[in-house]
Specification:
Blueprint: E1 4-5, H1 7-10, H2 15-34, E2 46-49, E3 55-58, H3 71-86, H4 100-117, E4 125-127, E5 136-139, E6 144-148, E7 155-157, H5 161-165, H6 168-172, H7 181-191, H8 207-220, H9 231-243, H10 247-250, H11 252-256, H12 260-280
Antiparallel strand pairs: 1-5, 2-3, 4-7, 5-6
Length: 283
């Protein structure tokens, strides 16, 4: 397939060139958001081919669970899958210390339904789930995108999911309400409006690109965090699914390159975050 990986050059591009590429990415996202799903896809979850070659609902490739008649079922299965993996993770030990796991299980059994029930219905949407510069090719002469790759994680979910699973934490992935500092400032900007003038960029947020992405979505008429109903509340539940197996505590490479003191400190911090989440929901 023709083209050079966009990620190879994106970081070194000028703000103007980055904005040009992001506008093209927004065009592609609009196509995904507006794609009319075949009538044979009835559920949330993964995709497969039926006996006659038609697209049909299927288990998720990322969870090996589903399909789900409701979106709440998909989100709950995501959390349950992470809890199951946490059982055998040597760093978190299923979060059984200090009674946290019992509280998590009770929340999933009782509180999750309550948290979801007031969010209404969720239109089914094709989600790429890895929609980042890593997976775009472009022509270096024309500066035009030539391909979107890697549909391995694609599934049927909602408009919100692309902003939870894709787009890069420093540009277009919606930070959780439990972030702090620059990440929390980016969340506020994405849900309301960007500050003027923009703050200086740093390792956490590339402010010119983040605003260029939001501007491109607005210009193209795409769904974006500021226009997606209930995304603010829903992002807290996605935060939970990520916090059960936090990257800096459970990734094999990170663990291998960390001291026991560092890992212990991260686990203590993780316990505190989970306790705060559960307390906020009355568990």
């Amino acid at each position: 397939m023709a083209g050079r990986p966009l990620l190879n050059d994106f970081g070194q591009m000028s703000d103007e060139d980055k904005a040009f590429m992001l506008r093209q990415m927004a065009d592609v996202l609009v196509i995904l958001q507006q794609y009319q799903l075949p009538a044979t896809i009835r559920d949330y979850g993964g995709l497969d081919f039926g006996p006659s070659g038609e697209y049909v609902s299927a288990p998720l490739s990322i969870l090996d669970a589903g399909p789900f008649t409701t979106y709440a079922g998909l989100v709950k299965a995501t959390i349950q899958s992470k809890l199951a993996k946490a059982n055998t993770d040597p760093q978190v030990g299923g979060w059984r210390a200090n009674g946290i796991r019992a509280r998590l299980d009770k929340f999933v059994a009782e509180g999750f339904h309550v948290a979801m029930e007031n969010m209404g219905t969720f239109p089914k949407v094709l989600v790429h789930a890895d929609f980042t510069p890593d997976n775009f090719l472009y022509d270096t002469g024309t500066m035009r995108l030539t391909a979107l790759l890697d549909f391995d994680f694609s599934h049927i979910a909602t408009f919100a999911d692309e902003f939870f699973r894709s787009l890069g934490a420093d540009i277009g992935q919606l930070p959780s309400p439990r972030e702090s500092g620059e990440s929390l400032a980016l969340r506020t900007a994405m849900l309301s409006s960007f500050p003027d003038p923009l703050p200086p960029s740093n390792d956490d947020v590339q402010w010119p690109s983040a605003k260029a992405w939001d501007d491109a979505l607005r210009e193209k008429g795409a769904k974006r965090p500021g226009t997606i109903e209930n995304i603010a509340a829903l992002s807290d539940l996605f935060w939970l699914s990520g916090q059960i197996l936090p990257f800096k505590l459970c990734n094999e490479v990170v663990v291998r390159n960390s001291s026991q003191e560092q890992l212990a400190a991260r686990k203590k911090s993780g316990e505190g975050l989970l306790i705060n989440f559960l307390s906020d929901y009355g568990y």
